[in-house]
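Practice problem: predict the structure.
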Amino acid sequence: MRKAIEHMLSAVLIAVALSACAASDEGGTSAHADPQGMWSGTTSDGLGVKLIVLDNGETWGLYMLGSSIYAGLHGIADSAGSKIVIKGDEHYFNTGISPPLNIIGNVQAKSSMLLQSQHLSSKLKYNASYDRPATHEAISGVWQFSGRSKFYDFTDIDVAIDNKGNFNIIQGGCLAIGKVTPRPGERNIYNATIKSIEGHCFADLTEMKGVASIDVQFGQKILLIFAKDASRKNSLVIAGIQP
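Answer:
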């Protein structure tokens, strides 16, 4: 089942970029090029990427290498005209390193985004899943979770999310509690928190905060949760499908 989740993830990999700035089309015409929305595509070296753009400048991200979660990112996005800049840090789960992130690019509202970092470029297209409202009904139910952080991996755990967004993750000596709640506004984004309360799992017993979103690919609902601890040195990505 982990392979099934990772296969779905390769199509829906999410980086969340939140920006409140207006923009204009390339070519000098006066128009808004707001980067809000979900965005998906690939990098120049074949990594999978997906973007969601909201309204406050915060940026979350994920890269896939084949069917495996490769890295996450977090930072702040700013835009002016058709230009967008994202600065923050990346988190490579295989090595544990967290280098600085500096991405620049161009965006056309609800159409396309071209991004360039120090070592790769990305071509992304808009995904209208962003325009669905986030609801407790959509998020509740039993999901099969797999996840990865700097310190801990887990696979194929059945997790029940109740009608208030609460859930527990139990595996071996690890117990974590979490919550996902609809973010204000008519968008497909949830606020997320998760904390290890037994065992040194995701964040060494500290609380992690971030966002979540639901996408639908090939008839399958996919829940993605992104979070970081207060030190900004560890990130967590969880992927879930409904059996």
